[in-house]
Amino acid sequence: MKAFEYVGATSVDQAVKALTPGSAPLAGGTDLINRMKDYVTSPERVVYLNDVKELAGISGDAASGVTILAGTRLAEILASEVVKSAYPALWQTTSEVATPQIRNMASLGGNLFQHPRCWYYRSGFGLVPKTTDGKHMLREGDNRYAAIFMTDGDALYVHPSSLAVPLIALGAKATLVGPEGERTVEVEELYKVPTSNSESPFATKPGEILKSVTIPASKGKNASYEARHKQAHDWPLVMASVNLTFSGETVSDARVVVYGVAPVPWRSKAAEEAIKDKVITVESARSAGEAAAAGAKPLSMNGFKVSMLKTVITRALCTSAGNKYWEA
Ligand SMILES: Cc1cc2nc3c(=O)[nH]c(=O)nc-3n(C[C@H](O)[C@H](O)[C@H](O)COP(=O)(O)OP(=O)(O)OC[C@H]3O[C@@H](n4cnc5c(N)ncnc54)[C@H](O)[C@@H]3O)c2cc1C
User: How many Å lie between the centroid of ligand 1 and the Cα of residue 290?
Assistant: First the structure.
């Protein structure tokens, strides 16, 4: 690991002042420290956030909305009764992240700003990994875990944060704080798609950190469903989160967001349109899954993700309606 300067911040103000160019915020360290050890990220200075008390905790309720501060550990999100009862899409996803030990250390901020797991990126070839003769390593190489949407571009990795997916489905907003003050954006606006290795996958301004995420009042129903290699100690292969509002029995508004298929959390407008004005049944949920898959352009080794995409959307929709037909 390259030598670095360490600053232990005790307030947000101190942290922001210490985050000069070339610095990185450090929360639980479950992602950043690994990248530093592998020389993938080599900050000049690390600013430790875990002692900043104003960055930890959960407040609010289902009727008015809930705010989760950025330093809140994933284990605390899991222990929250309001998250469990009002936002099961978020609770379920959090329960499946990594292991209990990692969830005890990992923070919401670190989760939303973790870097992609693409093995070419983690081996030092960047997010747009190319050989010296210009061949795209993911397009031409082992792309079994790569994207199936936006594959005409050069960012072929998949976005890593599974918590971003239910948060976007739930319409959550992120408050950022930096040298120019505070601003609030939709969680989906935190991310962008780099076109070269010198670009960031985050849409934050220099020196900004996440302060909190606010989820609006809970209306209707929400759920998540993951397909993964194994139950623990891994990221999902493909996952869907849905958030539905109803007029009587029919869906009046839907948000369907998918993990593991694009370099950003993938909002499937096609699935949203397909389920609108429908009663949730296995058939209508399957039609939404089918609609989501139209337009997918898998790479040479990841065609399996298209059927997973259909399944996770179908099952997330059915879970929201209390129908876990596959367990019968
Ligand atoms: C075996 C394993 C399995 C995993 N499975 C999953 C999974 O299923 N789903 C999933 O989503 N994740 C998964 N993870 C990733 C894990 O959730 C993240 O490593 C963790 O959430 C990062 O949080 P942290 O507090 O440790 O962040 P750190 O490692 O401290 O930081 C991560 C990044 O976020 C930045 N950062 C930290 N705090 C802030 C802030 N407030 N504002 C702006 N930037 C900030 C840091 O500079 C760094 O770049 C897994 C990790 C492991 C090791």
Answer: 32
